[in-house]
Amino acid sequence: MDGVGNGVEIEFVDPTSTGEYRIARSPDEKDALLHVPNAGLNFFEEIGLSRKQDRTAFSPGNRDRLPYGRRVQDSPFEKLQLLANLSKPPSVKFKDLQARTSEPTIQFDVLPFDMRVHFLRVNESSVVSSFTLKINNADVSYKNIGGVSQGTLNVHARITALSGRKAGLFEDIIESRCREDELSQEVKRSSVYQKNVILEPGRYKVDIVVKDVVSGHTGIIHEGFEVPKYTSDKLQSSTLVVADVVESLNGRVAAGAFIFGPNKVRPNVSQEFKQGQPIGVYVQAYNVQIDQAELRPKITAEYIISKDGKEVRRIKEDGKVKTVDLDGNGQQITLGRMIPLNDLAPGTYEVKAWIKDEVSGQVIEPKGNFVIAETKIKN
Q1: Mind listing the domains of the chain with CATH numbers?
Q2: What's the pTM value of the predicted model, to 2 decimals?
Q3: What is the pLDDT of residues 122-142, one digit of tens each?
C-alpha cells in the first residue's frame, strides 16, 4: 500500500460485540475467549509450559519471557506506526497537477473531457459519490512502444467543502493500448474512468485535472455539487443513472470499476446515444415498506420516456431480469435494465423511473435526460 508499507495486515475486530468494528491494535483482540478462564488455550498453555494469564494482553512485561515468540509486525511500536500510516492523508503523486487545481479553465492546449456525478446511499450520514470521466481517444496522443500504441493520462482530483475543508483526494493513471494497425479504430472510441468516494451530505466543489503524458495537453474542470441527505422515514432514491451498460455479474467476483452491488453499470457521461442503441437505466430506492402479509415490499415501477413533455414510451417493470432486485433486503430495491430505442427519432428525451410503494402509498420519480443523435450518412 502506497505510503503504508509492504505485506500490510489490517485486522478489524468487534471487542464489545456491538457491531462497531475498528482496527485491531493487538493480535489478542480478535480472541473471543481471551477473558474466559481455561478456554481458547494455545499449544504451550495446553502442555503446561505457559499460563493464559501470562499473555502480553494481561502482562505486557512478559513479552520476552514467553516460550513462543512474536512477529516483528505484531510489536506495539509497529502497530502504532501502522495506525499512523493508515491515518495520514494519501501522498500526492502528481504534484504538477495538484498545483493546477486552483487555476481557471485552460484556454490553450486543452484536453477536453466530460464528468458526471451520481449518488447512492450507504446510510444516513454517508453517501457514495461516483465520479465518472469520459475522454475521447481522438483527443489523446499515442506513442508507439515496441509495436504497441499507448496513450497515458494522469488524473488528479481534489474535493473540498464550501467551508474550505478538504473532503477527498484521488489520483490515477488511465492507459489505452492497441496494436499499431488498430489505432485508426481505437481513436474512434472513448476512455471511461470511474472513482467512488464516500462523503457526508452537504455542498462540495471538485477540481479535476487530466493531463496527456505524451502531448502535455491538460484539461481542468471545476464543478460544484450537492450530496443529498437521506432520511429513514420516507421513500427516497439514488441518482437515476443513464448508462450504456447495465448487466448482472452473474455471481462473478465484484472487482474493477462500474460495479454497483451485484451489477455492472457503466454511465453514459455524454448521455448521447446512436439511433437503435438501447439505453440503460439504473436506480436504487430506499426505505420501502414491508407488506406484512407477504413479508416483502409491494412495489409498482414503470419507466417513462417522454419528448417535449409528451410520453412516447412506457415500460412496466416485471422484476424478471437479473439486474432488478425487488426483495427489499435492508428496505432497499434496485431497478436496472436496458431499454430498446429502435423506433425513436433523433432528439432530446427525458427518462423517468416512476416508483410507488403500495404499502405506504409514497411515490418518487427520479429522472434523467438523454439525446439520440442523428445518424450521419456517408456519401
Answers
A1: 12-87 (no CATH), 90-229 (2.60.40.10), 231-379 (2.60.40.1930)
A2: 0.78
A3: 988 999 999 999 999 999 999
